[in-house]
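TL;DR need structure tokens for one chain.
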Amino acid sequence: MQSGSTFTPDMSTERTIGWDLGGAHLKVARLSHEGRVERTIQLPCALWQGIDRLRRAIDRALNEIGPARDHAITMTGELTDLFPNREAGVAAILGTMADCLPGTRLRVYAGDAGFVDPSAALTQCWKIASANWRATAQLVATCVPDAIVLDIGSTTTDIVPVAGSRIRARGTDDASRLASQELLYLGVVRTPLMALSARWPFDGGWTGICNEQFATTADVYRLTNELPTDADQHSTPDNGPKDVEASARRIARMIGRDLEAASLDAWIRLADWLRTTQIELTEAAITRIASAGYPAPDAPLVCAGAGGFLARAIANRGGRASIDFADLLGCSPDVGGVAACAPAVSVALLAQRL
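>> reply
TL;DR here they are.
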């Protein structure tokens, strides 16, 4: 397909459900028989607290999204500290899926190895683990020959170059992707604010910060009025409210102050600076990745994730065109959450085309 065109699904005889099983969220996408996205769901799933959290989230998703015979699976939840290693995590997650979906056809995404049966999954453990970014990029590459996929989620950011309709990422797993900056542990909900900078501007000078998880990026984007409500699914660090005043109070605590120490406008200005800092960190990673010479400098950013609003802001600052992941697929405006659930949508579409 040519740049700017939308995805045309292949005809199918079966409805397909795609699953992106994360450590903090479960994302699900249901496709029609004709390969159109009918519905997406994102649910909180604190997998680090126990495998029962995943089971409950799966049951809830099935109750809300309905049944299907075919299921396509990708994951990042194997990384959580519930498991001693990734192999154990992949095995536990797939075992739970099999228990929750008896009598269905399960296919597991294994990156460049394609889809594998769960019974053979452990032989492909390292290709299955945290491969959801690749599913999104693989689908994008069928739509746009040259692009940078920028998926900013609640916890992480994926930056994936696509050139000549091929994924041109240097990294293949978490370790190599962190080294190449194609994976950043920066998101718009769960990232502790101490990850953005060790000193912050305030009251005409610079101040050190408390290296405590008093506040997260969700507090920043509540103050900038950008955080989508459906992305804000976890409790706050202090289990307090999710309003502007409470968010400002948590940010104030990061620099050893109380909310009353400054005006609300001052806390909003600080939130704006933290937003800019996150943008600049992401832009620097994009610049380093693009310095390899691909894709072309005018290649668009394909924006996905709960932080799609931030991805679009990055595109605008850099003078790049941007394409929303949902628009790329020609999804109906009535179907919400497509970009936020991009890997779940992608594995479903890739599996349905087989």
